[in-house]
Structure formats: structure tokens, C-alpha cells
TrEMBL record:
This is Fungal lipase-type domain-containing protein. GO terms for molecular function: galactolipase activity; phospholipase A1 activity. Residues 158-305 form the Fungal lipase-type domain. The lineage of its organism: Eukaryota, Viridiplantae, Streptophyta, Embryophyta, Tracheophyta. Belongs to the AB hydrolase superfamily. Lipase family. It comes from Camellia sinensis var. sinensis (China tea). The keyword Cell membrane does not apply. One of its GO terms (biological process) is lipid catabolic process. Its main location: plastid. It is found in: Plastid, Chloroplast.
């Protein structure tokens, strides 16, 4: 047995925060111990003087037989507005998975993504950070702690993805036209389509590095063979680019494996991924997606144009929002019409007294998302800091009505 200190850089490349995780090695597997230390650079902390420890303050609850509800079996009905404290605790816990490996879980597979962008030969003379095609992007972890399994009500498998970190990944992000998941059909054929760059990162491979898709499917197959006879869930979490990859991964798992376990996506600050047909296929596959959105985060508003969210039934005419009527017809047949997926939990940086206003990078930061989740109460009372004032005002109004 050997021990070492591993350093994981979470999420976006502009976040210099380092999470130091004490790793204990058991043969080829890595088990993350219960002790985790966080080192946060104050100059990049969007929460100012608020400590990281106070951010995740909700006590984990024993879910028991209710675990499927918290995984989205009923699309989180009655749990989002106001935000259920137990669900808040689970979302924050999954957010920590994106930042670093979490205690009580054994890391079973590191994941790498490969960019499919064709590069000119001269790029080989460029710095390595420019030309790196394959890079570490996440991991698969399985809960092997008996107490945690008892608390969760099942054995949970977590697939976690970071956000954009390399030059070529940024280039893939800019390939924003839709491309078909299957075959070479177009938007008029009603086929599921997704963003070209995201699909490229998910499916591309090299002679020495298999695709992210193949690696994940191989590991999920092994896990299902090992634990398929017990209550099991697969939770895929990601931030930014990782949120898009999480959605593609969920689609692949639910459409590839026979009788898969409940698959849930917890998406932080994710961009749009696919068209209306892709959304329909996700719904039919049973995939549950909780899409956490900061209203002030630009990334959640791109790429392309979005379909009216009220247009959820097949056969209805496509209505593109945000465009004048004369331009809609020309846009609707292009490869730029997207559809939001899943159930949305909408937050806002403007409601927090701890965040600087108008900072684009801060609005997209994963730490900001966890901070907002920790403070969110309901749509009528969007942040705990304002809850006292709202309750006091409501109490005065009730007193006046009584008189």
C-alpha cells in the first residue's frame, strides 16, 4: 500500500483553485480517503470573504426509499421551488465531485477526451498546450462505503466531467452547428442532432487513446456486471463543457444498455446540447436531467437559437424565440435551432450580496453555482440573506390584514 497527494484542477481553465486530495492506492485502484483539504486562491475567490467550508453547510440526509425522487424519477416535482434541503445537500455533494474526487467513493477509471479538429502540420512546432489532442477530463467513481450506501439507499456510480481546459477544447466549443447523432440526415428529417464540437470530443480517438464514449461504455458495462444485482444508480455530473458531455453520456447509456439503472444528470452552467428531436429522445429514454442555470451566466444562453420551451410535443410547429417573425422561417430550417433539456433550477448572481456584479467569469464559475445553491430558498425568496427581510415584510402584511 502506498499513499500520495494528488492535485486535481477543477472545471474551467481560468480557475486557478487547486483541490489537494489525499489518495491511498490499493493496487491499480485509487481510493479517496475521508480527509480532503481545499486550498483556495483568495484573489480568484468569487465569494470574497465567505469561506469554502461555510458554502457546503447542509447536513447529508438519509434518503432511504426516497432516493429515486431525489434522482428525478418524478422530475423533482415539489422539490425545486422552494428548494428541498435534502436535495440541496445532494446537489452540493455532486458539485464537489466535479471539483475533485470525493470521500467514500473508489475511483475506478480516469477519463480522457480527444479533440477531432484537423490540425495543420506546423502546429507540431507550437507549444504543447496548443497542440494537445487528448487530455484528462474526468473519472468514474463507485460508492463502496457501507454507511454511505445505507444513507443513499443504493450504490451510486458517479461520472464526473470538468469544463473546458485546453486550447483545442475551446476550438471544439466554437463548432456550434448541429450534426446528426445517427447517419447523415438533416434537420428536416426529424433526426436527433447535437452540437458538432461536443460530439467530436465525445467520439474522437487516436491510435493510442480510445474515445471518451468507448471508455465510459466499457466501464459502465463492467460496473453493471459487478453490481447489477443490487439497487444501483448512475449520476453524471459536469460543469460547462462537462455538462454537455454529461448529457451525451447519459443518452448513450440509456439507449445502449438493456434495462439500465436510473440515470440522472446534474448539470452546472451547461450550454445547449441538441435540437428538439434530441430532447424528445432523452425524454423517451428515461434520462433525468436537472439543469442548474445562473440567469447571469452567458454560457447557458449559447449556442444557437432556442426553441420555445412550451413547444414540447412532437408534431407542433417549431417556434424560435427571440427573433422577428420575418427571420424565423429562414432560421428554422438551419442547423442552429437548439432546445433546452431537462428540468431547470434557475438561480441569479444578482441575488447574492457576496458576489461582484457584472463579472462574466464569476457568473460562470462552479464555486459561484455552489454558493448560489447553498443560499437559494425559492423563486419568491431567491437567497437566504434576503429571507429574513421577506419574512418580516410578510408578517407585517399579515398583521395589517388581520387588523
Amino acid at each position: 500500500m502506498r499513499s500520495a497527494i494528488g492535485v486535481v484542477r477543477p472545471c474551467m481553465s481560468h480557475v486557478p483553485t487547486q483541490v489537494a486530495v489525499k489518495l491511498t492506492y490499493y493496487g491499480s485502484a485509487q481510493r479517496v480517503s475521508r480527509k480532503m483539504s481545499l486550498t483556495v486562491s483568495n484573489s480568484w475567490n468569487p465569494l470574497g470573504s465567505e469561506s469554502v467550508q461555510s458554502r457546503v453547510a447542509t447536513r447529508p440526509a438519509k434518503l432511504g426509499d426516497k432516493w429515486k425522487e431525489y434522482q428525478g424519477s418524478n422530475n423533482w416535482e415539489g422539490l425545486l421551488d422552494p428548494l428541498d434541503d435534502d436535495l440541496r445537500s445532494e446537489i452540493l455533494r455532486y458539485g464537489e465531485f466535479v471539483e475533485a474526487a470525493y470521500h467514500c467513493f473508489e475511483m475506478t477509471r480516469n477519463l480522457r477526451a480527444t479533440c477531432g479538429v484537423r490540425l495543420p502540420r506546423w502546429i507540431e512546432r507550437a507549444p504543447r498546450w496548443v497542440s494537445t489532442r487528448s487530455s484528462w477530463i474526468g473519472y468514474v467513481a463507485v460508492c463502496n462505503d457501507r454507511e454511505e450506501i445505507a444513507r443513499l439507499g443504493r450504490r451510486d456510480v458517479v461520472i464526473a466531467y470538468r469544463g473546458t481546459a485546453t486550447c483545442l477544447e475551446w476550438i471544439e466549443n466554437l463548432r456550434a452547428t448541429l450534426t446528426c447523432l445517427h447517419g447523415h440526415m438533416g434537420p428536416k428529417d426529424g433526426s436527433p442532432m447535437v452540437e458538432s464540437g461536443f460530439l467530436s470530443l465525445y467520439r474522437s480517438h487516436t491510435a493510442t487513446c480510445p474515445s471518451l464514449r468507448d471508455t465510459v461504455k466499457e466501464e459502465v458495462k463492467r460496473i453493471l456486471q459487478s453490481y447489477g444485482d443490487e439497487p444501483l444508480s448512475i449520476t453524471i455530473v459536469g460543469h460547462s463543457l462537462g455538462a454537455a458531455l454529461a448529457t451525451l453520456t447519459a443518452y448513450d447509456i440509456t439507449t445502449t444498455f438493456d434495462n439500465p439503472p436510473l440515470v440522472t444528470v446534474v448539470s452546472f452552467g451547461g450550454p445547449r446540447v441538441g435540437n428538439r428531436s434530441f430532447r424528445s429522445q432523452l425524454d423517451k429514454s428515461g434520462t433525468k436531467i436537472l439543469r442548474i442555470v445562473n440567469s447571469d451566466d452567458l454560457i447557458t444562453k449559447i449556442p444557437g437559437f432556442v426553441i420555445d420551451n412550451n413547444d414540447t410535443a412532437d408534431g407542433k410547429p417549431v417556434q424560435v424565440t427571440g427573433l422577428p417573425s420575418w427571420l424565423r422561417k429562414h432560421v428554422e430550417d438551419t442547423q442552429w435551432v437548439y432546445a433546452d433539456v431537462g428540468r431547470e433550477l434557475r438561480l441569479s448572481s444578482r441575488e447574492s450580496p457576496y458576489l461582484s456584479k457584472g463579472n462574466i467569469a464569476t457568473c460562470h464559475d462552479l464555486k459561484t453555482y455552489l454558493h448560489l445553491i447553498n443560499g437559494f430558498v425559492s423563486s419568491k425568496c431567491p437567497f437566504r440573506a434576503t429571507a429574513k427581510r421577506v419574512l418580516e415584510r410578510r408578517h407585517k402584511e399579515e398583521q395589517l390584514q388581520f387588523k
